[in-house]
């Protein structure tokens, strides 16, 4: 039994010795396994053909680039004329007799090689890659302020996107080609563009806090049958950023906003479409009647409200007020005068109280009664009206504009209406029959609208 074991051992040792000798002799002619130059595998290649084989290795070499969204691109060395040539170099020699040890040891020699490629072809190849040219490529998004339903304003997280950094991609591809890597992972190699970092995160946080504080309140300007609501983005637009990122009222924007209110809601000296007695519609322009916002005081009011940040309803501060704040600011009580028909009516709560023929100003003497929507701004009894060449006593006097025109009795006249005004009209006032004047006076009130038109000219 021992003789048989000895014979087997001798045979095994003999075979191993033979393998060892054959390996040692072989590795004097070829490179050991696990040997590479600059990443290019030269294992078992003939030592004498190293340079030729190294140069030839680029012919069929291709680099696979993988990126986000499972995008994959391949760059062939031959497509960009990429080649490397190896100069003379001293390789560390391992004794072929030690091959049982060194054959299983990784040996990568770093050698300076002469690299050539067509840069224009490389740029074209990079530009046509799916992960560069596809339409679904997204840019990185930095931290930014956004509005989220249910949360309000928040600072969103930065997002990298899927757009590659061109210069970094080119550099990484050339490095991988040089090492003859099989694959380049764009994400692991950190080749994607990074979002621009927030310059001052604390600044953004204060800005967000201010935005959310403004979101918590609204201001409502009431105009009887209408309202103007300042809330959300419209309200935020009236603020500006302070140096620390918080928001503060912007007085210039407030000024613009209040001016806009005036343009939209002021009726002072405005144009009105008026339903005249008799059925026709008149377009009446100008006059002293109407609403006028006091813009400086309203700006102060709004500035204070914006600083308080409380929900509130308010009216603008007015410089001038009218009877009604509705779209129809005349209301249902007014005096109506038609110069063409030489007639005057007084309505109260929509009901005709009194009407009368009148004599208005003489247009041929430059004293035509001014048209427009005027208002009764005074009521006086028993006074003298005077001019440069005349003086008249009246029992009832109601001025309606700021140039001395008004409604009054005229006991010096014996007739009214018709065409009297064209040759014998007043100095601009509305002469009223003495028998009718008391009723007009008693039913008129301070601020009552006086609509004066010429139905021959103003009908629409």
Automatic annotation (TrEMBL):
Q: Which Gene3D superfamilies match?
A: 3.10.20.800, L,D-transpeptidase catalytic domain-like
Name the UniProt key words of this record, in alphabetical order. Answer: Cell shape, Cell wall biogenesis/degradation, Peptidoglycan synthesis, Transferase
Metabolic or biological pathway: Cell wall biogenesis; peptidoglycan biosynthesis
* CDD domains associated with the record: YkuD_like
Annotated ranges, domain L,D-TPase catalytic: 333-453
Q: Mind telling me which InterPro entries this protein's record contains?
A: LD-transpeptidase (IPR050979), LD_TPept-like_central_sf (IPR038054), LD_TPept_cat_dom (IPR005490), Transpep_catalytic_dom (IPR038063), YoaR-like_PG-bd (IPR022029)
Active-site residues? 408, 429
- Note the PANTHER family from the entry: EXPORTED PROTEIN, L,D-TRANSPEPTIDASE
Q: What is this protein called?
A: L,D-transpeptidase family protein
Native source species: Aedoeadaptatus acetigenes
């Amino acid at each position: 039994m021992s003789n048989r074991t000895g014979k087997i051992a001798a045979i095994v040792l003999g075979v191993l010795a033979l393998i060892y000798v054959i390996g040692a002799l072989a590795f004097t002619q070829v490179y050991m396994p696990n040997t590479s130059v600059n990443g290019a595998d030269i294992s078992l290649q003939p030592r004498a053909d190293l340079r030729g084989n190294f140069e030839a290795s680029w012919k069929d070499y291709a680099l696979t680039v993988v990126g986000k969204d499972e995008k994959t691109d391949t760059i062939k060395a031959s497509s960009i004329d990429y080649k490397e040539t190896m100069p003379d170099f001293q390789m560390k020699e391992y004794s072929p007799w030690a091959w049982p040890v060194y054959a299983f040891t990784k040996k990568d020699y770093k050698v300076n090689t002469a690299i050539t490629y067509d840069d224009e072809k490389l740029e074209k190849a990079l530009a046509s890659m799916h992960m560069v040219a596809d339409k679904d490529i997204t840019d990185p998004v930095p931290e930014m302020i956004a509005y989220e339903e249910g949360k309000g304003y928040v600072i969103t997280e930065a997002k990298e996107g899927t757009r590659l950094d061109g210069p970094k991609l080119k550099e990484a591809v050339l490095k991988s080609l040089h090492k003859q890597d099989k694959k380049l992972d764009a994400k692991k190699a950190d080749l994607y563009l990074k979002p621009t970092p927030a310059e001052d995160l604390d600044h953004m946080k204060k800005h967000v806090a201010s935005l959310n504080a403004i979101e918590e309140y609204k201001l409502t300007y009431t105009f009887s049958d209408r309202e103007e609501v300042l809330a959300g983005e419209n309200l935020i637009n009236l603020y500006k950023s302070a140096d620390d990122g918080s928001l503060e009222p912007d007085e210039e924007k407030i000024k613009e906003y209040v001016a806009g209110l005036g343009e939209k809601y002021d009726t002072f000296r405005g144009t009105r479409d008026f339903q005249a007695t008799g059925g026709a519609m008149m377009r009446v322009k100008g006059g002293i009647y109407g609403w006028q916002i006091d813009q400086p005081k309203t700006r102060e009011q709004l500035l204070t409200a914006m600083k308080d940040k409380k929900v509130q309803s308010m009216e603008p501060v007015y410089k001038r007020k009218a009877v009604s704040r509705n779209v129809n600011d005349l209301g249902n009580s007014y005096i109506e005068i038609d110069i063409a028909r030489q007639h005057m009516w007084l309505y109260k709560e929509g009901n005709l109280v009194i009407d009368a023929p009148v004599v208005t100003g003489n247009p041929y003497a430059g004293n035509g009664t001014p048209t427009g929507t005027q208002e009764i701004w005074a009521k006086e009894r028993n006074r003298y009206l005077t001019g440069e060449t005349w003086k008249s006593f009246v029992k009832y006097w109601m001025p309606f504009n700021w140039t001395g025109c008004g409604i009054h009795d005229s006991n010096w006249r014996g007739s009214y209406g018709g065409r009297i005004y064209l040759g014998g009209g007043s100095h601009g006032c509305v002469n009223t029959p003495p028998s009718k004047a008391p009723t007009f006076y008693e039913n008129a009130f301070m601020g009552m609208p006086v609509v004066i038109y010429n139905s021959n000219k103003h009908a629409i």
